Amino acid sequence: MKARVHVMLKDGVLDPQGEAVKHALHGMGFDGVGGVRQGKVIELDLEDGTGEDAVREMCEKLLANTVIESYSIEMA
Amino acid sequence: MKARVHVMLKDGVLDPQGEAVKHALHGMGFDGVGGVRQGKVIELDLEDGTGEDAVREMCEKLLANTVIESYSIEMA
């Protein structure tokens, strides 16, 4: 059983990594790029029977800083 | 128009961040976690008409180090 967690900075929180990527892309001639946001993706291999609730608890306690980051969980 | 790019270390490339997350989760009592891999997700706002080919070029040239990283693109 697998879970994929996306952790992104919340809207309104400055994202210097994303800004750096945007400027680099513009410098390389990719002018069609507007905003860029960069986040983390964490892929977890889970024992069968581990539910989304457990993954949510991992996010709240460790994987995301919920003051400035939001997360989403996909179970597969 | 939006694109989401996932960049992950290739299988077989050591992922110290993922290992650190795994050990932390075990230390917190989440014993049902097997492997953990951590990667990047980059969300791009694109002008209409910017195709997947352009995003692929951005990946090859800037967003991913294709020696050790693989990437996948979702257009939305």
UniProtKB/TrEMBL annotation, chains A, B:
Transmembrane segments: none annotated. Its EC number is 6.3.5.3. GO terms for biological process: 'de novo' IMP biosynthetic process. Keywords: ATP-binding, Cytoplasm, Ligase, Nucleotide-binding, Purine biosynthesis. Coiled coil: none annotated. Pathway: Purine metabolism; IMP biosynthesis via de novo pathway; 5-amino-1-(5-phospho-D-ribosyl)imidazole from N(2)-formyl-N(1)-(5-phospho-D-ribosyl)glycinamide: step 1/2. GO terms for molecular function: ATP binding; phosphoribosylformylglycinamidine synthase activity. Gene3D superfamilies: Phosphoribosylformylglycinamidine synthase subunit PurS (3.30.1280.10). It is an enzyme of class 6 (ligase). SUPFAM superfamilies: PurS-like. One of its GO terms (cellular component) is cytoplasm. It is found in: Cytoplasm. InterPro entries: PurS, PurS-like_sf. Pfam families: PurS (PF02700). It catalyses: N(2)-formyl-N(1)-(5-phospho-beta-D-ribosyl)glycinamide + L-glutamine + ATP + H2O = 2-formamido-N(1)-(5-O-phospho-beta-D-ribosyl)acetamidine + L-glutamate + ADP + phosphate + H(+). Part of the phosphoribosylformylglycinamidine synthase complex involved in the purines biosynthetic pathway. Catalyzes the ATP-dependent conversion of formylglycinamide ribonucleotide (FGAR) and glutamine to yield formylglycinamidine ribonucleotide (FGAM) and glutamate. The FGAM synthase complex is composed of three subunits. PurQ produces an ammonia molecule by converting glutamine to glutamate. PurL transfers the ammonia molecule to FGAR to form FGAM in an ATP-dependent manner. Belongs to the PurS family. HAMAP family: PurS. Part of the FGAM synthase complex composed of 1 PurL, 1 PurQ and 2 PurS subunits. This is Phosphoribosylformylglycinamidine synthase subunit PurS. It comes from Salipiger bermudensis (strain DSM 26914 / JCM 13377 / KCTC 12554 / HTCC2601).
